[in-house]
Amino acid sequence: MFPYQDALSYVLQHCRQLKPALTPVAKARGLVLAQDVVALEAIPPFANTAMDGFALRANDVREPPATLRIIETIAAGHSPTMLVGEGEASRIMTGAPVPEGANAIVMVEQTEADGDEVTVNISVPVGNHIRPIGDDVLKGELVFEAGTILTPGHLGVLSSLGLLEVIVFPRPRVGVISTGDELVADGSALKAGQIRDSNRCALLALLEENDMSPVDLGLLPDNEDAIEKGLVEGAATCDALITSGGVSMGDFDYVKSVLQRIADMRWMQIDIKPAKPLAFGLIAGTPIFGLPGNPVSSMVSFELFARPGLRAMMGRANPLRKRVVATAAESLGRRPDGKTHFVKAIVDYADGKVFVRSGGGQGSHMLAAMARSNSLAILPDGSGYSKGDSLEVLILD
Fold it and tell me: Omega of the bond prior to 274 within 30 degrees of 0, cis?
């Protein structure tokens, strides 16, 4: 059997980073910066107030209460027109520029306005509630380094800097193909020997969930010419391809026959359960993942191999799922067989601790149990774990 880590390393070695591209900031969530971002302007670009209230000179309210003359009202988005002098104040709204002459803001709740006068009931220090120029980001500052994974917060900062586009590693276009005369995808009644095509729907959804661009290349019949045409065209228009089924050593499958002819493939039997068989290779430089046909095995193989490879193409420095140490909430037994088992599991959190229990039936055809699970418990070769033992868990959500 092929060692799991060796198989993963082989996949990552052959999944090259995509060429960086200029992408609209509004569509860059989840992508990785391909170059540093340096601020070309300050945030905020002018001194402004953090509160609704009155802009004044701190010295004028040193001994409250103090009554000042209101000289103007400054709304957000408008500039002051008057200098604040001794004994004067400007009514000001949150975000508005601080007028010349003022060096503090008193929040409106600490004042009493009457006509063109305001009584201030507290003293305040110089700079009170004033956001200075560059309080958040200074002009010329390195804001985000290359390799940063862009979150909604990052996109907000980039927009605040006036950036409409940013250079990132793009989302890979990943084509998903199902093949087989036994598959039914139109909801019609099943005939003898037929099954529903569930893998393609699940794989497309997994790609979308992981910030990739899924491409549905459809359900192809058991015809080598049609399969070859679909694979070649898919490799030419997508950054990677995924198929499922027909990758076991003893299988004869039309996809396998075609791939052996048109691709540089490695057929692996890996020391894991489920998802033991994996085919991986290149069609004219385009990575193709041949995943197992059983629904659970297909999804687990995606998590263990396809997802890391595709995320590496997206510039992710650490493309693997997060592993945590959890406490077994129940016995998680198994039999020695020379393989590492990835068990469908449910992780719960209580009192600052992580607990894990079985997600249900562990058969590679039991997709409903996979749907209920939010993790994979990692059981090395042996007899498993007893309740209360510590073990590693691969978090899926």
Answer: yes
